[in-house]
Amino acid sequence: MLLYLRLFKESFSFALNALTNNKLRTFLSLLGVTIGIFSIIAVLAAVDSLDRNIQDQLSGLDKNTMYLTKFSFGPTDVPRWQRDNFPQTEYDDFDFIRRNVPDIEASAYVIFGSPQTVKYESETISGVDINPVSNEIYDIESIKIEEGRFYSESESINGSPVIVLGHAVAENLFGNMNPIGKQIRVYGRKLTVIGVMKKMGAGLGGSPDNKGYVPANFVRRFQTGGVNGIPGAVIIKPESNVDIGAFEEVLKQKFRAYRGLKAGEPDNFFVNKMSGFTDAIDGIIGTMNLMGWIISGFSLLVGGFGIANIMFVSVKERTNLIGIQKSLGAKNRFILFQFLFEAVILAVIGGLVGLFFVWIVSLIASQFTGDFEFVLSAGNMFLGFVLSTIIGLVSGVIPAISASKLDPVEAIRTGM
């Protein structure tokens, strides 16, 4: 053990000498390792941070939640002309499903609309994502209310002119005033603010803080469905203990019968599952990781060649010393480990510099990305350290073997 500690000390000393005596050569050699480690760990940290933020946004939504509507959320074999002729999903469809399909924990009717302008006295906010939806969405999306309340079932059914605002919308409209009970204008109509949601931060499809919820039946008074109307959907959350595949089949059978579809006729609707959406997100994140590895791998390859180059030069410069060491009884493995340790130390130094830059970038990014949390995990830092070590081992093994096999007499003669 003492021998290897001494060997590590000597190798570290040789590595430092290589760094100080050949500054430009060493800098250029380690630059590839530094850039490679920086690229890989930065990409992994960014993708992990994105994945964590997405999962936080989806945590309140059950993956088994389904959206029954006229269009598909993903690729489909149904031709475009056929999809365009599908009937809109109406409120009556929602009413039928919640009354006749068993094993439903919660269901809601939503109308997909465009961003709206919200006004309160002299204050105006454009591009607010107003969601016309029935009151059951409160249980499906686990909406958190900071002030006031969400609209009730009777208000939802009657289409009462009430609205629940996102935190940012309420803050921009009312400042420090209490928004509850205030009247604002949306769709050119007056609505009473009855609730404000808690601050949530950035999320998929925009921040929930920039949203508003109104009863779907309120919007249905002046926006009708039909082929050219506003598209709607039934959101269905099955009970947790049901077989999802069997539940989906029952849902389709009952809805086909409701729409009068005969055996052999294709469905004129789609059942989109959130699990498919999350799987697609996982696939995208996996692809991003893979592309990051491929691109960064070229930098690591260049770094590995740089380390190998500097080690071959080091062997050449110390040929005389190697001959003297072997003539004094140094074994081949001593010489082998000496150069391997030196290669690993050089690579680890480059890797640590790369990790340091990632850490600096993560701190800067966290200051400018607002609610997006950029996370550099201990796992990614450990991965960077391991990769650096592997690069050093792979790059140094051939120069180390060539050094260990030198004949002592020839080495001394060559080095003179």
Description of the molecule:
- The chain is an alpha+beta fold and 416 residues long.
- It folds into 2 domains: 1-58 and 280-414, no CATH class; 104-237, no CATH class.
- Helix content is 56%, strand content 15%.
- It contains 14 helices and 11 strands.
- A hairpin with a 2-residue loop joins strand 7 and strand 8.
List the keywords.
transmembrane transporter activity; 14 helices; seven-stranded mixed sheet; 11 strands; alpha+beta; elongated; cell membrane; ABC3_permease_C; 416 residues; membrane
Largest sheet: 7 strands, mixed
The percentage of residues in β strands lies in: 15-25%
Say how many strands there are.
Answer: 11
What value does the Rg take, in angstroms?
A: 32 Å
Oligomer: single chain
Total domain units: 2
Query: What is the 3D form?
Result: elongated
Mean pLDDT: 80
The helix tally amounts to 14
GO molecular function: transmembrane transporter activity
Transmembrane segments: 27-47, 290-313, 334-361, 381-403
Domain MacB-like periplasmic core: 26-253
Keywords: Cell membrane, Membrane, Transmembrane, Transmembrane helix
